[in-house]
Amino acid sequence: MRHFLLILALLVAYSATAQSIREQIATNPNLAGGIYTAYMVTYQKPITPPKGYKPFYISHYGRHGSRYQTAQEKYDQPAVMLEQAYKDGKLTELGVSLMHRIRTIADDAHMRAGDLSPRGEREQKGIAERMATLYPEVFSAKNGNHITCFSSPSVRCVISMTAFTERLKEIHPELSITRFASAHDIDITRPEKNMDTFYKTARTMAKKYQQEQTKDKAFVCRIFNDYDYAEKLIRQTYKSTDTHLFMGNMHDLAMIVQNFDNLPELHDVFTEEERFQMWHLFNIRRYLTYGPSIDFGDVRNQDGKLLLRDIIERADAIIDGSTKNEVATLRFGHDSAIIPLLAIMHAEGCDGRVSFAEIERLPEVWCDSRITSMSVNVQFIFYRNKQGDVLVRLLHSERDIRIPVKTDCYPFYRWEDLRNYCLAQCKPEAK
Asked: Which among 252, 66, 48 has a CA at the least distance from the CA of 134?
């Protein structure tokens, strides 16, 4: 069974690289979720390092697990609106069905905006379990037994850290764990210092484009039997001169339910083309606000340098012996840190650059669903031989990733080469 799962995972991975994102979404609608895409487990095959090398340290950054929408009104507004339309006799049969499902989803989410879901906790425990069992040498008593953890103060991140470390300690009870969750370490858990300089401009640009490009009349007419009535009600509900916000809200809810165990699906509300277009427009928004775009990416990537520099400096302290007994450094935060980290490292498939003028090309070069799902993580696995030479294996969501550093032993990189490359990426931009 284990071999079957491994083969299946490899086939899925191959298929993902061979198919366009449009084809993937058509096959699996949940991939239209972007940052709401639930974590896809990778059944790793234990890898044999070059002769004489053994793992001794892990440096990790992980996004929190699956969660609820962060804004309560995304649940409450459509629920109340559809119930009002039902009372007025203005819903189609599909609209009535949607109303009942949205009410179920909204009731489940009551007072839980932004909270980690039970699935999110399981995701974190699963990643921890695979880490602990694939690299037992790291957590052996003779290597050391201390782990330092840093979390964003966000409750969903703190609970993710707790779930992750709880599972590690269940497998290796001898571990000693120190946890921090404060603004003191925000530069390595939620590095966003440079966002203020462009975020509003980027978001406004993306929202305007989304408003112009969303074709929602056919969608609205499948839900309501009176378009003029629906147009007025939607504008009142969302306090907008346009109706596109309702369709966007429905897309958000259709995608977020994959992060839960027993909530009704909403995929039937969208056509295949609508689903792809909604993903595309939200992908643009995420790219402009967090990604390596030509317009804003150089500024945004400055924040990723803070995290990458921290990874290097803490690894140096482990390797030179100035930090003793530490076997892992774990960081828990948000997609807003993962995206620039992967971009400045030029991780394959994560650094695509286009300008807003050619934004329709974006699906060819950058896909949020692939880059930053729930529980997405980056792991640096350090190996050492008796001579003190160090190799590093890089993982993106537990899958090997390529970066433009020469190596004769992929998926391992020589630490000296990797370190020099990363330090070069961390240099401040010339003014």
From this structure: 48
Residue 178 phi/psi, 5° resolution? -110, 130
CB of 94 closer than 8 Å to CB of 222: yes
Cα 110 to its chain centre, rounded Å, is: 24
Peptide bond into 411 cis (omega under 30): yes
d(Cα 192, Cα 363) in Å, to the nearest integer? 25
Please give the Cα distance from 291 to 285 (Å, whole number).
Answer: 9
Domain residue ranges in the chain: 2-425
Rounding to the nearest 10 degrees, give the CA dihedral for residues 238, 244, 250, 256.
-90
Residue 326: which residues within 8 A CB-CB, separation 6 or more? 57, 144, 146, 147, 148, 318
End-to-end CA distance of the chain: 57
Distance CA 252, CA 72 (A): 12
DSSP per residue, 77-142: HHHHHHHHHHHTT-B-HHHHHHHHHHHHHHHHHTT-TTPBPHHHHHHHHHHHHHHHHH-TTTTSTT
The answer to whether residues 392 and 373 touch, using CB atoms and an 8 Å cutoff, is no
Of 3.30.43.10, 3.40.50.150, 3.40.50.1240, 3.10.310.10, the CATH number of 2-425 is 3.40.50.1240
pLDDT in tens, 281-330: 999 999 999 999 999 999 888 889 999 999 999 999 999 999 999 999 99
* DSSP SS3 for 181: coil
Cα-based distances in Å from 76 to 113, 194, 258, 264: 11, 33, 19, 16
Check: pTM over 0.85? Answer yes or no: yes
Helix (H) or strand (E) holding 178: strand 176-180
- H-run or E-run covering 59: strand 54-63
Torsion of CA 220, 226, 232, 233, to 10 degrees: -70
Contacts 24+ apart (CB under 8 A), 231-237: 233/81, 233/84, 233/85, 233/90, 234/81, 237/77, 237/78, 237/80, 237/81
Whole-angstrom distance, CA of residue 215 vs CA of residue 182:
43
pLDDT-wise least confident of 64-73, 80-89, 192-201, 203-212: 192-201
Q: What is the 3-state secondary structure (H, E, C) of 387-399?
A: CCCEEEEEEECCE
Note the pLDDT tens digit of each residue in 386-422. 999 999 999 999 999 999 999 999 999 999 999 999 9
